[in-house]
Amino acid sequence: MPVVATLGSQRLHLTGAVLPDGERRELWLADGLVRTEPVRDAVDLEGGYILPGLVDAHCHVGLEAHGPVSDEIAEQHALADRAAGALLLRSPGSPTDTRWMDDRADLPKLIRAGHHIARPKRYIRNYADEVEPEDLIAAVEAQVPGSDGWIKLVGDWIDRGVGDLAPLWPAEVVKPAIDRAHELGLRVTAHVFGEQAAAELVEAGIDGIEHGTGITGSTIALMAERQVALVPTMIQLENFETFAAQGEAKFPTYAAHMRALYASRLERFRDAYDAGVPIYAGTDAGGYQPHGRIGDEVIMLAELFGADYALGAACWQARSWLGRPDALSEGAEADLVVFDEDPRSDLRILARPRHVILRGSLVETAGGQSDRQ
User: Fold this and answer.
1) 110: enclosing H helix or E strand
2) Contacts of 306 (CB under 8 A, 6+ apart)
3) Closest Cα to residue 166, out of 189, 132, 194, 127?
4) What sign results for the dihedral spanned by CA atoms 94, 227, 165, 135?
5) Sign of CA dihedral 90, 187, 214, 154
6) Sheet-wide strand order for 54-56
7) Omega prior to 170 cis, within 30 of 0
8) What is the pLDDT of residues 8-59, one digit of tens each?
9) How many whole angstroms separate alpha carbon 211 and alpha carbon 113?
10) Residue 306 C-alpha from the chain's centroid
11) Residue 321: enclosing H or E segment and its boundaries?
12) Which of 50, 41, 43 minimizes the C-alpha distance to 15?
């Protein structure tokens, strides 16, 4: 089990190139904080490239294919992300109460959106708070206690009567719900695959789009104008063929639509990037993806946007978007990941962190050492 009591008590000394600017600096860590002046009795750590802790901006801690899981399994999710250097996790929807993790100094920080909000029989069983459209505002309000500033809607899913993807919420219903969330100081994001729901949700004032394979020209332009965030979850989109095949016998229109969305996804994401839509890295771990794959997601984003942008989308840019301060300035909480080589030169290096430092203490290091006994 993690030795929680020792966290923050270490004194560490790092020397290396600090990304993104690449400036060579010395940092000392004491009492869980970054110090820029020498600290007595600090232990020197090897490693040449120092980054703020990575961010997985879309992962579901406490969720697997069948629904909610035990605290022990949820802990395993968080530890897998930690081992990959992902120390800030945005969890946009989970039926498992993970608030107990806030008292665990050895686990990554979570930014939660409460439960998914969906309509009955219009999403994956056991995942969501299921309500009818007339109750959507009340459902938003009900998720506030379990939220860290976000609400998650299911924007579209297969409609068996239509035989294809269709929006869950009428446009005249979803806008007042988003407005209510904003009144409460919350941002709203949504699971969206298809074109219609993406267009309606962006028009209604949503703050984020998850997956976003259906964003098109006018929707992309409005997202750029309003700086609506896109988290494309590239790893998860590789399952579209499986989704299509599973539904093809009963819903051939849906299957064809899913394949078309997959085929056009790269072009649409490049258009969003070119327009200035902010794009962030999220694996969609939980449900049908294992945790700890942020490096794989960055590699896939880099194929579209280049290594610098992709790494920032999982690090400094994502931290800024989520309102978390720079982890490398004087007095900042010391959540860092250290690599032997510059990951921008070969993003595969992200799979091999030399050190992972959480709240100023070494929790993972090359060779298998960690705070776990």
Assistant:
1) strand 109-112
2) none
3) 194
4) positive
5) positive
6) 54-56, 86-91, 109-112
7) no
8) 568 999 999 999 999 999 999 999 999 999 999 999 998 799 999 999 999 9
9) 16
10) 19
11) helix 316-321
12) 50
User: Is residue 139 within 8 Å of 129, Cβ to Cβ?
Assistant: yes
Cα–Cα distance for residue pair 353/151, rounded to 1 Å? 32
Amino acid at 214: G
pTM above 0.85, yes or no: yes
3-class SS string, 48-67: CEEEECEEECCEEEEEECCE
Residue with tokens 């996790």, as numbered in its chain: 89
Full DSSP string of 156-196: EEEETTTTEEEESS-HHHHHHHHHHHHHTT-EEEEEE-SHH
State the pLDDT at residue 71: 96
Counting every residue written for the chain, the total comes to: 373
Write the DSSP string, 216-270. Answer: -HHHHHHHHHHT-EEE--HHHHTTHHHHHHHHTTT-HHHHHHHHHHHHHHHHHHH
Spatial distance between the Cα atoms of 362 and 356, rounded to a whole number of angstroms: 6
Q: Which residues contact 13 (CB under 8 A, 6 or more apart)?
A: 26, 27, 28, 29, 38, 39, 42, 43, 44, 45
Residue-wise pLDDT for 129-159, tens only, equals 999 999 999 999 999 999 999 999 999 999 9
- Of the candidates 88, 95, 92, 91, the one whose C-alpha atom is nearest the C-alpha of residue 70 is 95
pLDDT averaged per 10 residues, the chain (length 373): 49 95 94 94 91 97 94 97 98 94 95 96 93 98 96 97 97 97 98 98 98 98 98 97 96 98 98 98 94 98 97 97 87 95 96 95 76 41
Under DSSP, the state recorded for 142 is: H
What 3-state class would DSSP assign to 33?
A: strand
pLDDT of the residue at 373: 32
